[in-house]
Amino acid sequence: MRRLLFSSLLISCLFAFSAQAQNSRISELAEKLQQNISRMADNSAKDFFSRAENRADQLNNLLILQQSEATVSTFLLLVRNNRPNSELRNAADALNDRFGKFNSDSASRTESQQIKNGIEELITELKRNNDSQNKNPEKNGDAIGRLFWQGTIDDEVHLIIRGNTVQTKTLAGTEYNDGIFNFTSPLPDEKVQVFVNKKDGRGTAKVIQQPTPDNDFTAIIQVLDKNGGAREYGLEIYWTK
């Protein structure tokens, strides 16, 4: 019994340490990107305003660098406020899209390629982090509470969970008010990791907000069904320390 308890505690600690290490790695990559983009933006601005007249592509590059600098700063703000991984991925994709339009010349090619490589590395790390968050720890037996939800979903619905309540918010498609749910225990007012298993339904279900003190310990599950028409869904949502 003691050996089993020790093993469970060890697995939980390793899982928490892994998540913390991944978040630290994401911050490290983003901070390095911010430094590189800011330096390139400053140099570009100095060159631009030192010339009496600039070409259209030079103005476009200046604007792209200023937008990229603002985007990476916003990304870091999201990281520091523990925003959902989906928001981080969207911000990283926006950065990739903006900087991807930069037209490098022989003088800026090395520096711009370094930034592009950094963005690709950041996106890869975010995907790895997302895959890790979506791993099912149920086999470890460390779930401390569960919620079973069943209802009809047409397009996109968010399940907003706090304590022993579930609010169903329809973002797209027909709204149905037939959702029923049952808790084994309320979602606690403490930091836990929330997971979701889709038992019935054809679309996808994922956690887009983990409970933290900043959001009043509220979890949000996103359910997407883009195949047309409504379907019955069954979800098992559970949380671990």
Return the structural class. Answer: alpha+beta
Number of H- or I-type helical stretches: 4
Tally of DSSP β-strands: 8
SSE topology string:
HHHHEEEEEEEE
Quick recap of the structure?
The protein has 241 residues and is of the alpha+beta class.
Please write out the topology.
Blueprint: H1 2-50, H2 56-80, H3 85-99, H4 109-133, E1 143-153, E2 156-162, E3 165-172, E4 180-183, E5 193-200, E6 204-209, E7 219-224, E8 231-240
Antiparallel strand pairs: 1-4, 1-8, 2-3, 2-7, 5-8, 6-7
Helix pairs in contact: 1-2, 1-4, 2-3, 3-4
Q: What do these coordinates show?
A:
- The protein has 241 residues and is of the alpha+beta class.
- The protein folds into two domains: 2-133, Butyryl-CoA Dehydrogenase, subunit A, domain 3 (Up-down Bundle), CATH 1.20.140; 143-240, no CATH class.
- The protein is built from four helices and eight strands, in the order H-H-H-H-E-E-E-E-E-E-E-E.
- Residues 1-21 have low confidence and may be disordered.
Which structural traits does this protein have?
single chain; alpha+beta; Butyryl-CoA Dehydrogenase, subunit A, domain 3; 4 helices; 8 strands; 25% strand
